[in-house]
Design brief:
Distance between the termini: 6 Å
Number of domains: 1
Number of strands: 9
CATH architecture: Alpha-Beta Complex
Number of helices: 6
Radius of gyration: 17 Å
Amino acid sequence: MIRSGMNAPGLDRILFASGNRGKYVEVVDLFAPLGIEIIFGPEALRLDVEETGATYAANAWLKAKAYCLASGIAALADDSGVEVRALGWEPGIYSARVAPSDEERTDRLLGRMEGVTDRYARYVAAFALYLPSGCCIITEGVCPGELREVPVGSRGFGYDPIFAPSGYEGTFGEIPDAIKRKISHRAVAGYRLMDILSGNCVVE
């Protein structure tokens, strides 16, 4: 369906429905061209939203809706994860829940991949922008790549030190932020959302 004129009148600020500072910094940079103020969720309110959805989009929708209804302003949420072909596309939506810290999650995934030659993986993200009107816009993005055998680099967060995007030598832990914010799964989902808000999008 082709949609035009989807820019949201009066949308001058958005509450980012997450306590992840790394994601917040990426989102602020990504949406800077729209001139919309992005408010870090914990600075406005703290909610514990149970992620019971079966997909990234469903979990993003749950978080965005909860923050919007509680705050009265538009709320943006994301849900993302890494999917590994050799593991049947796990850990997927459970990527952030398999262990308490990034380091432990990374070690656990590398342990499961020990001796596995097929290293293909992909990062997947979904954005949900829930508006006070009750309308919700959802976009998704994918970044293909492969898993390295040991963590390399200190940039980013999550599984970044072991994920090397296709076409690049380094991992997201090594690649400069300026490049990551153009090619990542979150960037792809964000560009699609910005296109919708600016009224220049074909919605698939």
